[in-house]
Amino acid sequence: MATGAIANGLKSPVDLAKKLTGWYTAVAVLFILLGILAIAEPAVASLAVALLVGWLLLIGGVAHLVTAFGGGGVGKVVWQILVAIVYAIGGIYFLTHPGIAVGTLTLLLAGVILAEGVFEAIAYFKWRGQDGSGWMLWNAIITLLLGGLIWFHWPSSSVWAIGTLVGVNLLMTGFTRLMLGMAARKLVNRAA
Length: 192
Description:
about 0% strand, single chain, mainly alpha, extended
């Protein structure tokens, strides 16, 4: 009788798997919708990302402050408190100046993308004789162009860069999860 209450009316593991794949598919659709919204309104999505980073920095500062007094001596306590202060100041600044936060994050994003393009080009020259290495060069060129586009158009690229890239990522994640959920559902239906 106790196991019936735990299963919440599910009769078999197949029922549970069907319910889970349904939730997985619903979350995938949510990702797709959020991705479409982020691409449609990249400035709003960029602002949301900057505010999220601000809150994460503030929470990280609190976490460092809490763990500072967990032992390890005076030196550890002092360093943890200093790190907590830096995180908290960064978080508060991002939350009170979200426009500047978006600009800062965009410049950081451009730098990371440019570095990725350089490393991809170096990898191509190392493996250029291998099958498919041309794709590495193609990826390096596109990545360098994207990073350069964001970098050279900064700060105006702050309006679209983060929001658009986050939107594309959410959209691709949603479609990937949707396909995986549908494949899992087919497997469950075959097992039933």
